[in-house]
Give the backbone structure.
Amino acid sequence: MEIFTGLRSPLAISLGAISGALVRYYLTLWFSQRFIGFPWGTGVINLSGCFLIGIVTAIAPGRWSPEVRLMVTTGFLGAYTTFSTYELETVMLMRNKGMEALLYGLGSAVLGVVCVLLGMRLGELMGGARPGG
């Protein structure tokens, strides 16, 4: 039916977002119950999200439908990763723990790039195309 054709992308994104948000929620709970005083959960979630988007970028083109790519990247990873939370936690750390805030803020940014690159490389090794070429 043609009416559903226009809904495929929004539905794919929605399904991915529900899953990503739930995984983020439960991982955040798990980390907060075990590691008190530092936002390890957000860091792990953001870095693993960077790694996963690198893999998807390398393996998805030509193999996954546009809807599946949207479901995984925009939906799941968009809801799973936590940039706004990362920024808030950095600001909160700045109030009392300046050096930890600096390490957390810069460390997450630098390690995020490293994780994307590692994910892309792993995706290439898994038989994916080299992104951008």
